[in-house]
Amino acid sequence: MNAPARIRPIVKPRSLALKCATVALTVLTALTAATQSSAAPQAVELLRLNCDTRPQFRSVHIYQAGSIKSGEGGDIDGCKVEGPIGACMTEPFEGSKPLNLRNSSVHSSDTRSVTTMCHTVAESQQAPGETVRLFGAGISRPAESAPMMSAGGQGKRPSVDFVYSNSNAEQANLVANDGRWQTQARPGAVFKTLASADAYLKKISMPLVEPPKRITPPTPPTPQSPPGEIKAQLIKYGCNETAVAGEYVCTNKTGLDECKRIGLPSKVATKCGANIEAVIPVDVGGCQHALGRATEHLCATQAGFDDCKASVDQQKSTKCTKVGTGEIYTFHRSKAGIVGCDDYIGRANENLCFSQSGFEACKAAVDQKRLTKCINSATKETYAYKLTKADKLAKLAQIGCVYNNNVSDSKHYKTATCKSEPSYKQCEAMVDKIDLLDCALKTQ
Predict the structure, then answer these.
(1) Model confidence over 218-230: pLDDT tens digits?
(2) Phi/psi zone of residue 420: left (φ > 0), alpha (ψ -120 to 50 degrees), beta?
């Protein structure tokens, strides 16, 4: 999109402040009507308008989420439509965030006010080729002395103007040609066209069938497995260690065979025997033994189920079942050694945790950079490693860019300067991930 041209539509003299308020009210009424008629989001265009209604006011830009009605031509309430700068939704949707734009005004006191125009995709949901980031530039124009004019003989009054565009070149031209224009924080991404917004809306509106929860049983240990895994396997099959270290008694033949298969060769067990009377039952508060099995429990309360899970993690019990929901908990240990968690979809650096204690241990491993992500299977809470400032500086240095943090110069605050075209492109791709306002290319 080219730099906005200054267009003065022929309209009846009206106050610019009143006109901006009228258009804003129209937008708010349209969005409110859509909300009242249906909570479902609808795709709309984000329009940029240039308003210059009377000689004593400077022109400013305002924004409207909607579309041009038949017969309106290129004007909306006397403001020239410069074109759509993207598309968005009238209502929040899954994974969305509000699109907030700064207000243009003839009052300098409105400089910091923002308006939620519509709703758009969050950074993590952006689709390459379908969405585009908006760029912003702002200017505060002082009052201008002028010869005597109509409407009271006043010169042009001051105004605060914000221009948002999906064209990086347009923003760069504004800032380069007039030093009073300053780069604004990027408000987010919008869909390139109304059609792409409609397509995305249809895609996320399709009902998702959640697969049944299934806990994949761990691979049976071998004599070469860690002693902790072998002990857990023996407990699972009804074998418990007696007061004599290394001596196990089993409640059934299957457990006895398992003790001989992995217990004796690994030297975890020095003796395997079958004696149902010698089994030491494990008691868990709030739970009962399942079918008389000493290390399996039926829990009627959440507190009892949590205590049972802790007992399993300590390898005292082998199985917990929650009455009513049928939820089952057995021993889990990820490749990172986190008890209560398994590798998530086979990824050794990500863990899916089935107990709160396992989730907390996983979070500690993330902080130590041993893992990158933890997921709580019950609450769906996710914990991932967050880049520190030192990490961000190191990443920029790796691609040949320097972080500018000069707070005295608002135009260059939180930007990066790159020495080559490849490093500049890599920097642009990292902007949202490392919290930058912009990247600049400096080849001198």
Answers:
(1) 678 899 999 988 9
(2) beta
